[in-house]
Amino acid sequence: MVMQKCDVYAFGVVLLELLSEQESLRYVVDEESGGYSRQSVIDSAKKAVAYGVGGVRKWVDKRLKDLYLLEVAEKMVELALECVEEDLAKRLDMGLVAGRISKLYLESKTWAEKIVSEGDEDEDGEDDEDDASEDDAEKEENEEIKISDNLIITHIKKVQHCINKCDIKFWISGSMRNPGG
């Protein structure tokens, strides 16, 4: 039971790293002292959530360029923070985590498909795919959405692979162990 909870914790850290494109532990310049201070991805995620409206948007991987469903990103960050809960009794089990990630993936995919399909219709509801008058800005925006969607799907597939195979090697207490073998 304890080892499974450790795996969930490590998975939560990996999920936060994927969402933010931050390392699990990094050093940042302390503005007050001018020195360096340690900051974990967990602490930065907690600060983003505590910041309220816009906190998660500023924290999420900048390469996504706001081309994602913010509510899904917020739920994913909250899920990851539940995975890294210090109290073992409150920490989620992996089955629940997998189910919630799958649900969030479907929400995100449905949203992305809706956005792309809305971009393909003109004002009278006719399909605009073959219409040469579509301006370059719309084409670029649709392409950015597709790129963003692919990036999100890639991240989620990595997460699902980790859940399904359970073959990530985690660093725990300074030594590496493989939960799958």
pLDDT average, as an integer? 76
The H-and-E topology, N to C, reads as HEEHHHHHEE
Principal-axis shape = globular
Strand order of the largest sheet: 1-2
**Helicity range:** 55-70%
Beta-strand fraction estimate: 5-15%
Explain how this protein is built.
With 181 residues, this protein is mainly alpha-helical. Helix content is 58%, strand content 9%. The protein has 6 helices and 4 strands. The chain has helices at 2-20, 41-51, 55-59, 70-83, 94-119, 136-165, and strands spanning 25-29, 36-40, 170-172, 175-177. The strands form 2 sheets. It has a two-stranded antiparallel sheet. Helix 1 (2-20) runs antiparallel to helix 4 (70-83), helix 2 (41-51) packs across helix 4 (70-83) and helix 4 (70-83) runs antiparallel to helix 5 (94-119). The longest helix has 30 residues, at 136-165.
Short description:
The protein is mainly alpha-helical.
Topology at a glance:
Blueprint: H1 2-20, E1 25-29, E2 36-40, H2 41-51, H3 55-59, H4 70-83, H5 94-119, H6 136-165, E3 170-172, E4 175-177
Antiparallel strand pairs: 1-2, 3-4
Helix pairs in contact: 1-4, 1-6, 2-4, 4-5, 5-6
Primary descriptors:
181 residues; mainly alpha; two-stranded antiparallel ribbon; 58% helix; Transferase(Phosphotransferase), domain 1; 6 helices
